[in-house]
Design goal:
This protein folds into two domains: 113 residues; 146 residues, no CATH class. 78% of the residues lie in helices and 2% in strands. The chain has a two-stranded antiparallel sheet. It is flat and about 55 Å long.
Length: 266
């Protein structure tokens, strides 16, 4: 078994274990599991980082694969959520973060040769790609906060006893963070698309057209959501729908077709 296989499997196992423990803590089936879950998540993040380091040394080519960048982005999201949990409880979606981090590590291991950022690309083009991925990460986090907002709102409306023991954060605090993240992510996505039209010769050429169209639709989705929220307010459930539609469009534009093509070719 190669080193990259070993560390990838270890990272996925730690993430999955942490996700299960966070889930048990949240739903009350096992109390006082947070310390074990947090330790497993921290260990998973450390091994995840080692996976990325090993990947760069074992595959000494002149480009960073999209799956590598996606795995790096997943690691950054994991670290962000782990730190944020110290200030505002994220038990609703920490299991989801753990699951997605495990999935991205698996995708990086399964599709290591996916083409991506070449070291010979211009600074403008690299900036366009990185801005797009950062926007994806920020909007992905906002989607998680939208789900948490909807869940808390549902529990409050139904006067659930879960609110007494689950350690959920205040509704207004989550809503405030959600719309700040949506605004930041939408701005980054707008700048990323704008830089693409400046630095990419033809954004509607073969290989770019679907990315441009899907990213533009995602941008319009988030702009519409922010506009409605500014004008009349946005219900929690509607915010979830807008975020999910937007992030799915971005995911399909950035990774979907390429991963399907890689799977069919291999």
């Amino acid at each position: 078994m190669s080193l990259i296989t070993l560390v990838s499997l270890l990272s996925m196992a730690l993430y999955l274990f942490a996700g299960v423990q966070f889930g048990r803590e949240f739903f009350g089936t096992r109390k006082n599991r947070v310390k074990y879950a947090t330790a497993a998540l921290m260990a998973g993040a450390v091994v995840h980082l080692f996976v990325l380091i090993v990947a760069t040394t074992e595959h000494q080519n002149e480009q960073l694969s999209l799956t590598f960048v996606a795995a790096l982005l997943a690691w950054l999201v994991t670290i962000t959520m782990l730190v944020a949990n110290r200030f505002i409880k994220n038990l609703v979606f920490l299991p989801i973060v753990c699951l997605f981090s495990a999935v991205f590590v698996m995708l990086h291991y399964t599709f290591p040769a996916t083409t991506g950022i070449s070291l010979h690309m211009s600074i403008g083009l690299v900036s366009h790609i990185l801005l797009s991925l950062i926007a994806f990460g920020v909007l992905g986090i906002s989607t998680l906060y939208a789900c948490q907002l909807s869940f808390i709102n549902y529990q409050l409306k139904h006067k659930s006893k879960m609110m007494l023991h689950s350690g959920l954060p205040p509704l207004m605090a989550v809503e405030n963070i959600l719309y700040k993240l949506m605004t930041l992510g939408t701005f980054l996505l707008l700048v990323a698309l704008g830089s693409g039209f400046v630095f990419v010769p033809n954004m509607f050429a073969d290989g770019y057209a679907h990315k441009t169209i899907l990213s533009s639709l995602a941008l319009l989705t988030f702009l519409l959501a922010l506009g409605i929220h500014k004008a009349i307010g946005l219900k929690a459930r509607t915010a979830v729908v807008f975020n999910l539609i937007g992030i799915v469009l971005l995911g399909l534009g950035y990774f979907g077709s390429r991963l399907v093509r890689e799977w069919l070719i291999t």
